[in-house]
Known about the structure:
Elements: H1 28-40, E1 88-90, H2 92-108, E2 115-123, E3 129-137, E4 146-151, E5 154-158, H3 160-166, E6 169-174, E7 181-185, E8 191-192, E9 198-200
Amino acid sequence: xxxxxxxxxxxxxxxxxxxxRGVGGVPGSARRLAGSSARAMPPHxxxxxxxxxxxxxxxxxxxxxTPRRAATTHAAAPSSSPPLTPAISVTPAARARLAAxxxxxxxxxxxxxxxxxxxxxxxGGCNGMSYTMDWVERxxxxxxxxxxxxxxxxxxxxxxxxxxxxxxxxxxxxxxLIGGGFGFxxxxxxxxxxxxxxxxx
Length: 201
């Protein structure tokens, strides 16, 4: 039997059925392709999105050319609540009379300290309670007294107990010959005597 002779193999050709291996077990052609692709592609960089442009102020014209409506402010509606009732008030006639009385006292006794009209109530009279009025020095007022500015340089003071019956009082004055003098308009009084100086609650 003649001896078997293997066919000659071309130099550099890979064996049939087995891929040519490169370095590290990677085919040489694949390694060369990957290397060329890597050199052809630029290095990958992660770009951050640009910050949006600042918002135009109200009233300015944006880039589109459409004018932007300016912001409007609305004035607060006036309060409809009724005004507070003063604890003690006087009419212009009563204020003028009280100011004249203070001027007379200052002229009669120069150097007299400032005076305040003390208003109060006491038990007695036709209907059980009567009004009281007197001039006192301001330095003699108690810390518990409530002091009210009546205008025209006139002030009034009232103790806390009397103020319970006099809250909302309006002091008036008339120079009539009959029934003249100071009058009291007390919203707390349920009944008054004819002279108007006594009341009940």
